[in-house]
Structures are given as structure tokens and as C-alpha cells.
Amino acid sequence: MADLWWVYSKPTPADGRELWTLFLQCSCITAVIGGLFYNWMFASLEYSWHLSIAVSISFSLLLLLTLFLVHPARCVFSMIMPTLGTKQGRKLLLSTCVMIAVVNITPNIMSNIKTVLQIIKCICKNSSDSLLNSTALLQTASREFGDAIQETIHSSTIYKPMNGRFQFSLLQNTSSIYQQMDLAGEKIRRDFLSVEVLVKDSVRVGNRLVAGFSMFYLCFESTWYLKNYLTNLCFDNFYITKKLERLAVERKAAHLLVDSSKNLIRPTGLKLSREEVMLCLVQAMLLSVALMLMLVVVAMDHFAFSVADTALRKAAQFSVVPVTLHIKYKAKIWILPFFLGLPSEEIPLQDFEKNYHHHLIFSSAQCRISPPMPPNPSVLLVVGLLFCILYSTVFLETYASRLCRKIAASFFQSWEEKRVLYLYRKLSRRQKK
Asked: Which residues cross the membrane (predicted)?
């Protein structure tokens, strides 16, 4: 591995063997990166497969030529890998989490809301049907009751009142009601569909913009680091490296490193400075805000499923409400005597007593209701793992920066010796003062 890295980090290959080794290394790297780039564009950013293939192949060929021919480009590309563990890599992972949530959780919430609306529509339709059918019951009762009154009138020869039939109007034009209900349901469905499409498109476009900006900034940050490393001797130069220790031993000034141990850090050690610790805490707080927003979306998914499942079970438990119309009618004639002292006579004419039964139905098995969609546990697992990686990158960012410095030092060893000599002289001047 050391020999392969030596060939990879050299400015120019020494012979044909090193040239072919470098070409094979660059080819393997570009093949892996091209495959990951295609999967990222097609699965995460949701580009079409033919566009993803064309862009990934073009990117791989361009990357192969750049890595094989340009030595500083290999250094910049090598520093991009640890830079993924910094805030730019967190932005990419966070955008992936958002895309996963939008693609998988948001449609689930919309589907459960549609289920609740379908249940409400079913209850409204069945209850309206029952109420409209109850008017037919009233019409039957009024007709039979009116016939009974007419018989009473015809049987009476003394007094004949006006026509005693009830006039009851039955609402028979139910198609207009059903049409209005269908139009209202279709409008609600279109509104929800348009909102769902708008949210998906907005998040997809935003995710692509964030991903493109993050990739550009990754390259820019690595290039900026290499530029400062090669032009500024003070930049990121406070590490006790092996070259610095060897230089101090050669000049018999090993005590300089002991006296400056509070200000210098070993690049392979786990010690963090106070500034690095505060920066990690701030980044962790910002990441916690994003985690809280993601948890709100997940809670909405569970709440929508709970409401839809409860509404479906309660609607199935709705009992049929019996309605009974009881009509009791008794007609009599009292004959008053013409002479005082004679008893009065009561003559029954007509007795009518009948019960009419009807049932109010609020739910029916004929309603087309889609079942509630439970939250997908695999999505929650993936989002949880990504956030664990995000929190780990908060504390690994400092070590990623140290790895970038080590990569730059291995690519430009002569310049690293100048930086070590500059740091040694700086420590010597500080001790003399």
C-alpha cells in the first residue's frame, strides 16, 4: 500500500512500470466513482436513467484524464474524500435524508389523509341515502293514514268535512345531490394531488441545487486548502510531525517541542483544542435542529396513520340506527240527546294504529376506501443511520482536516520540509523572546 501511494502521489512516474500502475489506479478509482455517481444521480436526485448514464460516463472519462495527467488534481481529489466528513459532506447527507423523507414519508401522509376523506365521504353518502329513503317511509305512512281518514269521512252521514288526505312531497331527484358530493370529493382529491406534486417537485429541485452546490464547494474547498498550503507557510502549521521531531533532535532542541506542547497538536493524536471543541458543539446544535424537523415529519406520518386507522375501525363499528314511526288514530261520534235526562251515545267510526320501521345506515361495505398505510420502518432505519453518520462527522471533522494536511504533505514533500523549518524557527524565536 505504501508503494502504491508513493506512485500515486509522485509528480511524474519514474518508469513505464510506475506509469502503468498509476493508470490502473486512476482507472479503478474512476470506475468506482462513476458507479457511485450514477447511483447518486438516478436513485437520490431522481434523474432519468439515460441522462444519469451519459453524465456518469462523461464524468468518469474526464476524471480519468485529469487524475492521470494532472498531479495537483490528484491531490485535490484525494482531499475531497476526507472533506466529505466535514460540513459539506453533512450537507450532502442531509439533503439525502430530506429526499428520502419527501419521496417515502410525504406520500404516506397524503395517502392516510385521503383515507380519512374517503371515510367522511362514505358516511355522508350513506347517511344522506338513509335520510332520503326515510321520506318514502313518510309518504307511505301519510297515504295509508289518509285512506283511513277518508274511510271515516265516507262512513259518516251527518257531517262531511273537506278532503282529509295528506299531501306529502317526496324528494326523488337524488342524482343532483350525488353529483355535488362527487364533485366535492373530486375537487378535494385534485387539490391534494396538486399539493403532493408541488411538494415533491419543489424538494426535488431544491435537493438537486443543494447537491450541485455542495459538490462544487467540495472541490472548491479542497482547492482552496491546497492553494493556502502551497502559498502560506503559517496556514494550518501547528502540528508536531515526525519531520519536526527529527529536525529538533538533529539540532539538539527537543525541549522546544516539550515547552510548546500546549500550543501544538500531534496530527495522529485524539486531542482537540478548545476552539475545535466549541466548533463541534455549535455544529451539533445546528444538526439537532434539523433532526427535530425530521422528527416532526416522522411524527406527522405516525399521527396520520393513527387517525386513518382509528377512523376506519370506528366507521366499521357504526351501528344501524332503527327509526320507528307509530301512528295511532281513533275516530268517534258522540250523539247528544235532544231531551234532557236521556244518556248520550258514543259510536266508534274508525280505529287506525300502525308502526312503520326504517333504519339509518352510516357506513357500508360497498364504499371504496383504501386501507391506511403504516409508516415504513426501513425508511426510519435509513434516516436514523444517516443521522448517526451525520453526528459522527461533527466530531470527526477536525481529524478529517488533519488528514487533508497529511495528504497535501505526502504530495508535496519538499514544500512540507519548508513548512517544518518555518515552524521550527518560529518556536525558536518565541523561546528566545
From this structure: 20-41, 53-72, 92-111, 277-300, 378-396
| pLDDT greater at residue 283 or residue 263 | 283
For residues 397, 400, 404, 409, the Cα torsion angle rounded to the nearest 10 degrees is 120
Q: Over the range 192-217, which residues count as b (16 or more CB within 10 Å of their CB) and which as e?
A: eeeebeeebeebbeebbebbeebbeb
Radius of gyration over alpha carbons of the chain, in Å?
A: 43
What is the rounded average pLDDT for all residues in the chain?
77
Q: Rounded to whole angstroms, how far apart are CA atoms 368 and 117?
A: 11
pLDDT of residue 218: 77
State yes or no: pLDDT of 156 exceeds 60: no
- Cα of first residue to Cα of last residue in the chain, in angstroms, is 45
Segment (H or E) for 75:
helix 71-83
* Nine-digit cell string for 264: 501544538
- Cα 295 from Cα 304, distance rounded (Å): 14
Alpha helices of 232-273 — where are they, by DSSP H?
242-250, 255-259
Q: Which residues contact 92 (CB under 8 A, 6 or more apart)?
A: 84, 211, 214, 215
Could you tell me the pTM of the whole model? 0.60
3-state secondary structure at position 347? strand
Region 259-282 average pLDDT: 70
Residue carrying the nine cell digits 431522481? 46
Farthest CA pair distance, the chain: 154
pLDDT score of 350 more than 70: no
380 CA to centre of own chain: 10
Strand partners, 357: 324
Length of the chain measured in residues: 433
Residue 24 pLDDT greater than 90, yes or no:
yes
Q: What is the pLDDT of residue 20?
A: 92
Strand partners, 323: 358
Residue 250 clears pLDDT 80, i.e. is over it: no
Q: Of 223, 117, 129, 212, which Cα lies nearest the Cα of 177?
A: 129
Exposure string (b/e) for 263-298, b if CB count within 10 Å is 16 or more?
ebbebeeeeeeeebeebbeebeeebeeebeebeeeb
Nearest residue to 106 (alpha-carbon basis) of 32, 184, 195: 195
